[in-house]
Design brief:
Length: 292
Amino acid sequence: MIPKEILKKVRRIQITTSRMVNDVFAGQYLSVFKGRGMEFDEVREYQPGDEVRDIDWNVTARMGRPFVKKFMEERELTVMLLVDMSASSRFGTRRRFKNELAAELCSVLAFSAIRNKDKVGLIIFTDRIEKFIPPGKGSRHVLRVIREVLYFQPRGKKTDITAALNYLNQVTRRKTVTFLVSDFETAGFERALKVANKRHDLIAVTISDPRERELPDVGLIRLRDAETGEEMLVDTSRADLRKLFRERNRRDEEELLKLFRANNIDHIPLATDRPYEKDLIRFFRRRESRLH
C-alpha cells in the first residue's frame, strides 16, 4: 500500500501542475511539439491571422486572391520520460529532493501531452531498467506515472544511461519525444546519446543541487558517495580545496553542455534551489523561436 504522505504529494503535484498546464504550458507544448499536420486536406481563402507560410501560391496566382493550405489534425505523438532514480537522485539541500523535482517536471510534461491527445510512457532506470510503463493516455495513467517517480524503490544505486537509451530503442518502434531526466553523474554514454538522438527527439534535463557544485565552509565533514558508498573526510575550511571542488564541477558541466551542443540536443537545466517554471518556459520559447 502506498503511504499517505506519498498520496498527498501526488495530489499536491497534480493540483499544482494541472493549473500550470492550463495557464501556461499546454499552448507552448502544442506549438513546439505538435507543429502543423502532416497531411494536406484542402485549400481555403486566406483569413486574417493565417500563417503567411501556409499560402498556396499556385492557387493564389490562379484565383487572383490569397488562398492557404489546410492540413489534417496533427498526428498523435508519444512522449517518453526516462527518469534516473539512482541513489544520487534522492538528495537535496534546499526546496526539494532531486527526485521530487523530477516528479513535478514529469507531471507538467505528462499533463501537457495528454491534454493534446498524446501518449505518455515512463522508463525508470538506475544501473539497470527498474520499471517500464508503456505509453498511455488519460489522467489516471499520468497519476500512475507521478506515483512511480515519487514512490518507486529501485534496486540499483548506480547510473547507466546507455542501458536506458538502448532499452528505449528496443521498446519503441516509432519516433518519440524523449525527456532524459538525470543528474548525469556518470560517464561513457556519449555514443548511446548520439544514436538515440538520431532516432528520437531527445531532450536532456539536468537536475542538480547547489551542494553538488560548491562546498560550504563548515570545517571537517564526512562526504559519502550515494552511488558507490565510498566515504571521505574533507576539511572544507581549506579555500584551495573548495576552489578545486568548484572548478572540477564546472569543467564537468561544461563538457556535458559541449556534448549536448555538438549533437544538437536540447537541454533544460533544473536545480533544487530555484523554481523550475522559468527554466521550462525558457526552453519552450527558445525551441519555438528556432522552429518558426
